[in-house]
Every structure is written in structure tokens, then in C-alpha cells.
Design a protein that fits this description.
There is one protein chain. The protein is an alpha/beta fold. The chain has a single domain, classed as Rossmann fold. It has 10 helices and 12 strands. The protein has an 8-stranded mixed beta sheet with strand order 6-7-8-3-9-10-12-11, with helices on both faces. The protein has a 4-stranded antiparallel beta sheet with strand order 2-1-4-5. Helix 3 (108-118) crosses helix 4 and helix 5 runs parallel beside helix 6. The chain is globular, with a radius of gyration of 21 Å. The N and C termini lie far apart (45 Å).
């Protein structure tokens, strides 16, 4: 099957430092993945791991330094702003803050129909307002409200309605449940799943909430310092994480069972700076399983059973950290 989205060795560099000593820092350091029609792919990792930067680069909102992005067979990372505009009808993005991403000066009616005006799509806007609000579970009484008159969950639904207004093929959702109550998070996730099936959407979900990933994603990638360390089918990764970082993230996932808390893998809170990436495996400074090889040799991303992995010493199912100090 031909992928809808094909990202190859993508890098995003940021210029930093004083004028006479500027240097490039890689926020995304060479990642590759494919997304097929109707599929949901999740990007997972701690804050600052490069998830949002990668999403913005895919959508042409952030210049890339190397690599390529193909959408439906067309290379799009070299397109200028004018050439990208038609693609924005079929590639939409939902931003993190459900209320802050909505203009306080516009009514819900204007917000959900704004894509029609921007792209010059002729339509009966009143009918489209009703249609879009109904798709996300809101009625016409919301049409004349402003953002400050909406709850977080209602604002997120309006954001979803705006994202699907022009029947896109791809939706990139950045932290779609951020700032929402747990019960509302479930409603939003069910809504996204329903719309994916009804409209045939493909989705890229960016999140640090692993409950979100397990609920909506077919495949997932775990990011650390701008790189993928583990990718695979979501069920398989959740069942038996093979990278120590993935295992630590999953072990920290909140569980109602108090016995689960005793099985958590504690990591040092200090994440290395992108300005001073560790030698060898960049995770070795926090990894309970790190060995001498990890400090000097960077692992390559390569096939490992049913997934791809960047680790010299993949974990066996149910592996527990050895009883020793975390290396420095």
C-alpha cells in the first residue's frame, strides 16, 4: 500500500548562541516513518523531546534542515507558502491549547467556517456550521458563542470541527486532550476515533498521555532528544516494551491498582541538554540497564522482531532494573 505520508531522515535545526559563536542544535535529529490511509500514528515522549517540532515540520510550519516529507507521493518540504496553501485543505492541524487556539474575537460560527473563506471554497456557511457542529456533538446554540464562553471540552470540539471542515485526508493533533478533565478526555478520544472511521481520516497524534496512545493509535513512535528510540504496533509495544526509555514511560502510566506503583522504573529527572548531547547512546545517563558499550557507541535504529529499536541491549518481556546505581 502506498503511504499517505512518508517522512525520511527528517532533521530540524535551530540556531542558538551569541552572534559570533552561533551553532546549530538539532531539535529533530533524523527520524523516518510512514503513515498509511486510515491509520493513526502516535508520537510519544517527555516534554522537549521534539514531538511538536516534528509535527510542525511535517505540516510546513517549521523549516527542515535535512531529509524529506512526501504527501500522497508528492514531495512537499521544498514547497513555498503559496504552493503549500492548496495542501492545507487536505492536511489540517489541531494545536495544543483548546481555548487559546481559538480567536477570542470570533464566534464559533466564524471559527468553524473560516477555512472555507481562507481557501475560497464556495459553500452555504449556515448549513456547514450546523453540519460541522453536529459532527462533533454540539448543537446550533453554540454558533454565536465566543471562546471564553466555552468549556475546555467544548473548545476542543470546536477545534476538531474547524480541523475537519474541508474534509482533510490527514489531521495532525497536538496534545488533543491537554488541559481536559479525565471524563472529557474520554469523550474527545471517542470523538476522534468515530470521525476517523466515518470520514476515513489518517491521523498523527502528539501526546505524552499514554492512555491516549493506547486508545487511538495503530502504531507509535517513542522520541527521546529528537530521535526515535522505538517504533511499532501500539499493542505490541504496550505489551512488551523493548527499549528502557519506553519501559520507564509505560511504568509511570497511572494505574488504579496500588500494587502497580511498586513496579515503576524511576529515572533521574534531569534530561540532557540538546546543547550537550551525551556520547554513545544518548539515554545512557538515565538508563538503569546501561553498560560500557552504551557510553561510547550510539545504537542504530534497526529491526527488532515486530518493531524497530535503537538499543544495544533490548529488554526481555517483564525485565526489571538491576540493583545498582544509575550510571553517569
Amino acid at each position: 500500500m502506498t503511504p499517505l505520508l512518508d517522512v525520511r531522515d527528517l532533521q530540524v535545526a535551530f540556531r542558538t548562541g551569541p552572534m559570533l559563536a552561533r551553532r546549530d542544535v538539532l531539535g529533530v535529529a533524523g527520524v523516518s516513518f510512514r503513515l498509511h490511509p486510515g491509520e493513526t500514528f502516535a508520537l510519544v515522549g517527555e516534554s522537549g523531546s521534539g514531538k511538536t517540532t516534528l509535527a510542525r515540520a511535517i505540516n510546513g510550519l517549521q523549516p527542515i534542515s535535512a531529509g524529506s516529507v512526501h504527501f500522497d507521493g508528492q514531495r512537499i518540504d521544498r514547497l513555498g507558502r503559496a504552493a503549500m496553501k492548496p495542501l492545507r485543505k487536505v492536511m489540517s492541524m489541531m494545536f495544543q491549547d483548546p481555548v487559546g487556539s481559538l480567536s477570542p474575537r470570533m464566534t464559533v460560527r466564524d471559527l468553524v467556517t473560516e477555512p472555507f473563506r481562507i481557501h475560497g471554497v464556495r459553500a452555504e456557511l449556515a448549513a456547514e456550521t450546523t453540519r460541522l457542529l453536529a459532527l462533533v456533538g454540539l448543537n446550533d446554540s453554540f454558533a454565536d458563542r465566543f471562546a471564553h464562553q466555552l468549556s475546555g471540552g467544548q473548545a476542543r470540539r470546536v477545534g476538531v470541527a474547524r480541523a475537519i471542515a474541508l474534509n482533510p485526508r490527514l489531521v495532525i493533533a497536538d496534545e488533543p486532550t491537554a488541559g481536559l478533565d479525565v471524563s472529557v478526555q474520554g469523550e474527545v478520544l471517542n470523538l476522534l476515533n468515530d470521525l476517523r472511521e466515518r470520514l476515513g481520516l489518517s491521523m498523527v497524534i502528539i501526546t505524552h498521555n499514554l492512555h491516549v496512545v493506547h486508545h487511538v493509535a495503530d502504531r507509535m513512535a517513542v522520541m527521546y532528544l529528537g530521535r526515535f528510540v522505538e517504533t511499532g504496533q501500539t499493542d505490541a509495544v504496550f505489551r512488551a516494551p523493548a527499549h528502557p526509555y519506553t519501559a520507564a514511560l509505560l511504568s509511570a502510566n497511572p494505574e488504579p491498582d496500588p500494587d502497580k506503583a511498586r513496579e515503576r522504573i524511576a529515572l533521574p529527572a534531569e534530561v540532557p541538554s540538546l546543547l550537550a548531547r551525551p556520547a554513545g547512546c544518548e539515554f545512557h545517563t538515565r538508563c538503569p540497564w546501561a553498560q560500557a558499550r552504551c557510553r561510547t557507541e550510539a545504537p542504530e535504529m534497526r529491526p527488532h522482531g515486530d518493531r524497530h529499536l535503537a538499543c544495544h541491549f533490548p529488554l526481555a518481556p517483564g525485565a526489571r532494573p538491576p540493583e545498582r546505581d544509575i550510571p553517569t
